[in-house]
Amino acid sequence: MVVMAGASIYAGMDEHERKVVIEFMHLLEKSKQLFNGLRDLPQHGHKQWQSYFGRTFDIYTKLWKFQQQHRQVLDAKYGLKRWQIGEIASKIGQLYYHYYLRTSETNYLNEAYSFYAAIRGRQYYSRAAKENRPDLMVKKLRYYARFIVVCLLLKRMKLVRELVLELDKQIVDYTSTYEPDDQLEWSLVLEEIKSFIKADGIVNVIHADSNTVVLSHRLGPLTTPPCEKTTMMNLVLQEIIIIGNCNDQVKFSELTMDMFRMLQTLEREPQDEFNHIYDSSPAPGRSSFDKYSMPGKMPHENGDGSTMTGRPLRRENPHKYLLYKPTFSQVIMFLSSGFKELPLNGAMLLYLSADGCFPTTKHPQDYGYDLGGVQTSCKKEDIIHSKKTLQLKEMHCMYPGDLYPFTRKPFFVIVDSDNSFAFQHIPQYFNQPLVILMSPQELPMKFQDHHHNGSLFTLFLHSPLTAFCYICSVPTIPIHQWERCQSFIDRFVTEASRLFSHSRIDPAYLQFFGDDFLRLLLLRYVFCDVVLHLHRSFKASSLRPRCQPPLPEGDLLDHPSLTHLVYDLAAHLDVRNHFMDTSQGTD
């Protein structure tokens, strides 16, 4: 049945049936209006958008429950089709995904997964091709792309590969049937996904049967580094800005590989029935889709940090913004918003993964602006142009001086760029804790061809053992050996944490050290520095990371106990020949 405007659509209905159809149409129209209004909400801040999201969830809850309760009438009298039910479920999945993006709470990712998986499992879009509507096929393709993003973030790689094959087939059907104008765009989307998956598997961990093991690298009870807490360790990471603009790096859905890895590093493993270390499929009948049959209610937050029910609102993860190729004004706006939202004893982290913007003068006088910075929103040809012309400063370059105002509060900065060292001179004008971790500015020649797979420095911060295997040319490792090697990493982290607490170290480090995420990043930085210092391929100073304030060498970075643990790990992997023998001096 085709629904037409006017009173004729109610012909042949009794009073009850007419009320059901009218109420359904009202809820459907209202849900569309609210959903479309989401794009107009401010992307920054915490409270401006929450009430609108709450209203949107409420209407979709009513709509979903209503169509379930009155399915027989809607099928017979309204002509409700399965793809229309799928579209409602897809919108609910999108709501949960965007709520995850705004709150950084990974449990909402699982909710999005439940609805997307149910659409596939119940084949709501299976007859879309028979409708002879190209717009409906596009909705189906977009659903696949969104589902793949959610599965990538949840590390459900087996399902990702299945979805990619299905998407490939759907794109072929769509383009061969309709010969659309966006044929090339969908082909590029598919290639982006395939390249992204390939780059993410830079080191393969395998079972005894040679099947790949997919590991989660979010923070969990077993990966939280130990710490001897002191009263000085009083800061908590609250706000995160992640910026990505590496033109040669693989990306998918406005997530570069570096952004993808860092956002997982700064999240806790979901502590619910979906919690998993290895890739797995959900048990039948246990999804939120089946359990609740409608989207879960979102917590409405009061100004005092409690929910409307009076319970405290507990945040598992720091709040973060993901910015892909942002303009300068956008960067400043989000930094200002994060700065404004910081509570007492809160710290802000800025992660910059971007191509370098190089000096415009041969004799720098102002370390804030004369050493260049990183490009946040610029095409590669513009970067090449800026290298050749020593006249104008680039408008969309993030200079060290641009960050000075934000050092009024505790600030933790990570710069992964070929011009990262430009940020080592940021002064502490306001005597607030300030730490800057900077990537190596160059890579040895044999690793440069793989830079599009993601930065080595970020890989060390995300998965130290993966990075170690990569620079030692270990592309495949059995799971039992991986777990044994991971025990060496754990011992290194435990020892480095002990040395951190007992070294003569800048107080800023100790103030950040009490936070689980920042402690993890600092200790993985130490591992990166020690490993690269000992590796034969990373002798030049530009091939090693830097930090500001400098960490002590004798008490920490060159400490024999850490050196020996790196050598033990190398020996276990049978890659000791990649490392110098410090007992005989450098070679």
Automatic annotation (TrEMBL):
One of its GO terms (biological process) is DNA-templated transcription. InterPro entries: SCAI. It comes from the Eukaryota. GO terms for molecular function: transcription corepressor activity. This is Protein SCAI. It comes from Thrips palmi (Melon thrips). The lineage of its organism: Eukaryota, Metazoa, Ecdysozoa, Arthropoda, Hexapoda. The gene is LOC117640089.
